[in-house]
Design goal:
48% of the residues lie in helices and 9% in strands. The chain has eight helices and four strands. The protein has a four-stranded parallel β-sheet. 31% of the residues are buried.
C-alpha cells in the first residue's frame, strides 16, 4: 500500500468516528507505521493508545474488551457519542525522526500542519477554541502547548505520557485529571 493510500485509509477510519460537535480533542504524536492505528477496528496486538483512552473513559466496557472488531467499533462509537476525537500532530508515521529530546520536538513541529487543521475544524463548526485539548506524549506537549495557547485554544496543562512501556498507570491518572475525572 502506498503512503497516499495508507493516509487515505487512516483518514477514512478517523472520519467515520468524528463527532459533531467535538467536545474534547485529543492530539497524539503520529500514526504507527503498521495497522495499529487508533481508529482501525481490527487491531489484534498492542493498540496501546486506544486501550489507555478506553480504560479511563469506559472502565466497565473495557473490562470485558478482548480485541474483537465489533467490541472496538462499539467503544469507538461510545467515544464519538461522548464527543471525543483524536488527531495526530503529524499525519504520517515518523520514520527516520530523531528518537527523543529537543530534536524530535523540532521535527514534530516542522512536520505538522496541526494549527491549520484546527482552524479548519473551528471554521467548519466542529469545535471552538474553547474545546478542551489534551496533548498525549511529552513531545506533543513540548511542541504544541505554548503555540496552541498563544492562538487562544484551551489546552490542558498536563504532560501525559504515551500509555506503553510501563507508563500505563501514569497515563490513566494524568489523562483522567486532564478530562476532569476524580
Amino acid at each position: 500500500m502506498s503512503r497516499i493510500e495508507a493516509k487515505a485509509r487512516r483518514q477514512a477510519a478517523r472520519e467515520k468516528y468524528k463527532p459533531n460537535p467535538i467536545r474534547c480533542f485529543l492530539i497524539a504524536e503520529a500514526p504507527p507505521t503498521d495497522d495499529r492505528y487508533f481508529y482501525f477496528e481490527n487491531v489484534p496486538t498492542a493498540d496501546w493508545l486506544f486501550r489507555g483512552v478506553m480504560k479511563v473513559l469506559f472502565p466497565l466496557e473495557f473490562a470485558r474488551y478482548v480485541r474483537r472488531p465489533e467490541q472496538k467499533r462499539n467503544l469507538l462509537g461510545r467515544l464519538q457519542e461522548k464527543g471525543f476525537w483524536l488527531l495526530d500532530a503529524v499525519e504520517e508515521p515518523l520514520d527516520g525522526a530523531p528518537k527523543g529530546g529537543p530534536r524530535r520536538v523540532r521535527y514534530v513541529l516542522e512536520n505538522s500542519n496541526l494549527l491549520r487543521r484546527l482552524e479548519d475544524l473551528v471554521a467548519g463548526g466542529y469545535m471552538s477554541q474553547r474545546t478542551p485539548i489534551v496533548l498525549i506524549k511529552a513531545t506533543v506537549y513540548d511542541a504544541f502547548y505554548l503555540p496552541l495557547g498563544r492562538e487562544g485554544y484551551q489546552v490542558m496543562d498536563r504532560k501525559i505520557p504515551f500509555p506503553s512501556s510501563g507508563q500505563q498507570i501514569c497515563f490513566e491518572k494524568l489523562f483522567g485529571e486532564a478530562i476532569g475525572l476524580p
